[in-house]
Design brief:
Blueprint (H helix, E strand, L loop, with lengths): L1 H24 L16 H4 L5 H31 L5 H24 L1 H4 L8 E6 L2 E8 L2 H6 L15 E10 L2 E3 L7 E7 L2 E8 L2 H4 L4 E3 L4 E8 L3
Parallel strand pairs: 2-3
Antiparallel strand pairs: 1-2, 3-8, 4-7, 5-6, 5-8
Helix pairs in contact: 1-3, 3-4
Length: 229
């Protein structure tokens, strides 16, 4: 009974790490979703971290890939050839990987914005659209354009603001998407102070897939308004 239980756990971990490793190697060609994939979202906003944090993240990332490769090879060898000297190494590396993945993934479960995107330390401006006043966070740097309102789940995480205004240095057709976006948004496309279009961007939870919206003509300002559910 003990050996059957051990084999069950080893096979389970083998499948998890094999699928994750294979998916990374094939660069999403297989379109297999696993909870571990969310760790990859760190890369998109890692530039906001200190250099030492980036080094630690990538160091652990390299170690995790090496550890996964070891387990993918070692577990079948142990199961089929019963080389018990591998068991301790398998235990230790599995514990390392499980701890690493749970630690990072838990931030998405409890409050991703606290770890990945601290509340923007930016000014909030008052802005009027169709005679309705809004409080908007200002995004006027490449890092802030990239982050946008990703990962946030409610206005309380945004200093109570109603949304965000993106200010760009030049006019061009703008495209926004809802990856890692957990609130429904009204998008106002603007040329200077003139509204040139409006779009609806659903949360990823609602759309279940990536949705993109584009401005109807070149714009140098974009406003995202959080829709109250």
């Amino acid at each position: 009974m003990k050996n059957k239980l051990l084999n069950f756990f080893l096979i389970t971990f083998f499948i998890i790490f094999f699928v994750h490793l294979l998916k990374d190697i094939t660069q999403d060609i297989l379109k297999i979703s696993t909870p571990l994939d969310y760790i990859g979202d760190l890369k998109e906003i890692l530039s906001s971290f200190s250099l030492s944090t980036q080094i630690i993240y990538y160091a652990f990332g390299v170690l995790s890939v090496i550890a996964e490769l070891f387990l993918v090879i070692a577990i079948p060898i142990y199961l089929f050839k019963k080389k018990k000297n591998l068991l301790i190494s398998i235990y230790l590396i599995t514990i390392f990987l499980v701890t690493y993945f749970i630690t990072v993934y838990s931030f998405f479960i409890f409050n991703p914005s606290n770890f990945y995107l601290s509340t923007p330390n930016k000014e909030i401006i008052n802005y009027s659209i169709d005679n309705t006043k809004y409080k908007l966070l200002v995004a006027d740097t490449p890092k802030e354009w990239q982050k946008g309102l990703m990962f946030y789940k409610n206005k309380n995480e945004l200093k109570g603001s109603d949304g965000m205004i993106f200010i760009f240095p030049e006019k061009q057709v703008r495209t926004f998407w809802n990856k890692n976006t957990y609130m429904d948004l009204d998008i106002f496309w603007m040329n200077e102070e003139k509204i040139i279009g409006q779009s609806f961007l659903p949360s990823i939870a609602k759309s279940k897939q990536i949705v993109t919206v584009s401005s109807p003509e070149p714009a140098n300002k974009v406003i995202e308004i959080i829709i109250k559910n």
